[in-house]
Amino acid sequence: MRLFMLLLLLAGVAHPAGPKAVASKVIFDTDIGDDIDDAYALGFLLRSPEVQVLGVTTAFKDTHLRARLATRFLNAAGRGDVPVYEGPITAGKSYFTQSKWAEGSPDRTYPDAIEFMLETIRKNPGQITLVAVAPLTNVGALIAKDPKTFSKLKRVVIMGGSVGRGYGNKEQPDAEWNIVNDIAAAKALFRSGVPLYMMPLDSTQVSLDPAQQAELFGKKTGMTKALEELTAEWSVATNNRSPMLFDVVAAAYAVKPEVCPTTPMRIEVDDKGFTHKVSGATNANVCLRSMTGQFFDLFMSRTY
Questions:
Q1: Read out DSSP for 58-98?
Q2: In the chain, how long is the greatest CA-to-CA distance?
Q3: Which end of the chain is more exposed for a tag (fewer CB within 10 A), N or C?
Q4: Could you count the other beta carbons within 10 Å of the beta carbon of residue 257?
Q5: C-alpha to C-alpha distance for 97 and 238, rounded to whole angstroms
Q6: Which burial class, exposed, middle or buried, applies to 280 when counting CB atoms under 10 A from its CB (0-12, 13-18, 19+)?
């Protein structure tokens, strides 16, 4: 019997491989180019086999230059197969810290982000995770244009809001950037009924220190070279050496939810952009504390 089982094992039939896990389908909605964490979040998603990035959509103010930056980054990472879509340009001047690098990407036209997202959701009802790490202008446009299709998302994972902690980890909430820059869209999202996973300031203020940067950049890949160049440009513009990985926590949640355990809550967005925990039926699953050790183990192994 032992000889028979050994022969079966060598033939590859004694323990047939189980079915291969199907990658979760993701759309990455980003204001890449202002802060640096968007680029790190995109790089992380591209190297995570648990997800398939169907497209990158740019949001907020100069969405065209953001699309050029995303295109150059994807090409540097060897993932030029991932398409880029341009969201509606909104009023105001972008706080674009990485414009020089973005302008190194040849200019061209980009297809419409809102049409892409709606069409992709229609073709894949109940299967699409929208990872939204920008002011919610594109999300608001989706809901306004076709709320029925928006409701067919599997879930929305956002970096946004502030429940008990504000910027600098102070024990007082702030009106967080991604919420306060389109309050109407934020209110619409929290009313939408779509499964919503919220990574607020409470859990996302995770700093990438110089030693960790050196470890990443030392990998000397196309992606890490791009991240090094973008980080240097961002650092000069902001006089800051250590990126805060806000958006990467949201991306990591979409890959491994255990890095940021969530609690069901009801969140209300007020007219000043604050996100309050209130009584009532749950409308969001909120991570108030990330598992930083697990997060960095995952992030450092996937960003290359």
A1: E-SS-HHHHHHHHHHHHHHTT-TTS-EEEPPP-SS----TT
A2: 76
A3: N
A4: 14
A5: 8
A6: exposed
d(CA 235, CA 225): 15
Distance CA 16, CA 65 (A): 49
Structure tokens at 222: 């196309």
Distance from C-alpha of 286 to C-alpha of 267, rounded to nearest angstrom: 9
CB atoms within 10 A of CB 239: 6
Sorted by where each begins, the domain ranges of the chain are 33-302
Architecture field, domain 33-302:
Alpha-Beta Complex (3.90)
The structure's pTM equals 0.93
Confirm if 252 and 199 have CB atoms less than 8 A apart. Answer: no
Q: How far apart are CA 54 and CA 25, in angstroms?
A: 7
Structure tokens at 156: 């929305």
Per-residue pLDDT of the chain (304 residues; tens, 9 = 90+): 544 444 443 444 444 444 567 899 999 999 999 999 999 999 999 999 999 999 999 999 999 999 999 999 999 999 999 999 999 999 988 899 999 999 999 999 999 999 999 999 999 999 999 999 999 999 999 999 999 999 999 999 999 999 999 999 999 999 999 999 999 999 999 999 999 999 999 999 999 999 999 999 999 999 999 999 999 999 999 999 999 999 999 999 999 999 999 999 999 999 999 999 999 999 999 999 999 999 999 999 999 9
3-class DSSP state of 164: coil
CA distance 105 to 90: 22
Token pair of 250, please? Answer: 């949201």
